[in-house]
Amino acid sequence: QQWREHWQDRHAFERVQASGEAFLMPNITSADLDNMARDAEHRRLLGELGTRSLMSAPISIGGELIGSIMLASSRPDRVYATEDLALAQELSRRAALAIQAARSYNQALAATRARDELLSVVAHDLRNPLNTIAMAGSFALELLQGAEHQAARRQLDIIDRTVEHMNRLIQDLLDASRVQAGQLVLERAPTKPESVIREAMDMLQPLATHAGVRLEVECSPELPAVTVDRQRMVQVLSNLVGNALKFTPEGGRIAIGVTLHAGALRFTVSDTGKGIPADQLPLIFGRFYQARADRRGLGLGLSIAKGIVEAHGGEIWAESTVGSGSTFGIDLPVR
Question: Counting beta carbons within 10 angstroms of the beta carbon of residue 108, is it exposed (0 to 12), middle (13 to 18) or buried (19 or more)?
Fold first, then answer.
């Protein structure tokens, strides 16, 4: 707006500038300088600069003129020609792209901030009624004792599991937002790897038993401690094993191991499931990715796991063969 107000069509030169067309003045005369000058003082300065050749190219975005690039030469042996004007036009085109990219980036940042604020409010507003439902269901379970209430208790168990699932979805949304914003808070402390695996297995063993899948753990108590956020690493391992349980058929096996590898502590989760197609492997850690055979959840689990591992300075990776199974690995630096 300031640029448009400045280039009011008070002089012929300014009218050309404001028209949004490129122009070239290879040899500037005294009369040209007179036309360019706004007043006597400006004319004096133009004369002292000794401008002999001039060209200008507009900067436009979506048909809107937002500025211009102007180049001037005061050297007698440097007179601008049409090829120089083409270069100026290319510079102005690239400047327009850069400005547009900066605008888009700022708009994206504003949209991200608005989304995160909305998520925070929605998560808070959703959790309050969910907690009320959970407490009411728990109280009802205590009241409904005896064989005659088995059918009602089964329905209350469904409500309880659904509330737990909804809480996990809400937490996934919040964690994904924090990871993307670089606001994931870690409470690091020296931690033995076997304690992380043991806690994750305590939560997942009942699910594996129900699915008819065998869980195997190999972790030496002699392995060194690693400085991590214990609960976040339990979250990562639980996510990886939980994913493996989804795709490992009854009678299958999931192996969890920890070894030292090239100066890092390597956690691995291997399964005998369906495997991941090669064309999908590069995509699995992306936000909202879901396997073609599974549409449960939001597809944020692996993306969150990647963010947590990278926040620890580590690396997460995956290997897979269709029909044979997959291996997910986490390499954490030992400090």
Answer: exposed
The single residue listed with the structure tokens 């020296």 is 190
**CA torsion, points 161, 186, 308, 213, in degrees to nearest 10?**
-40
Q: The CATH number of 189-333 is which of 3.30.1950.10, 3.10.25.10, 3.30.565.10, 3.40.50.2000? A: 3.30.565.10
What's the average pLDDT block by block, 10 residues per block, for the chain (335 residues)?
48 61 86 82 85 88 85 88 92 93 88 74 76 84 81 84 77 76 84 91 88 91 90 90 90 93 91 90 77 55 89 93 93 86
Q: Is the entire prediction scored with pTM above 0.70?
A: no
Backbone torsions φ then ψ of 250, nearest 5 degrees:
-55, 135
Residue 171, number of CB atoms within 10 A of its CB: 15
Distance CA 174, CA 42 (A): 59
Architecture of domain 2-80: 2-Layer Sandwich (3.30)
Distance CA 210, CA 198 (A): 19
- Alpha carbon 222 to its chain's center: 37
Question: Of 277, 270, 213, nearest to 245 (Cα)?
Answer: 213
- Where exactly are the structural domains of the chain? 2-80, 118-181, 189-333
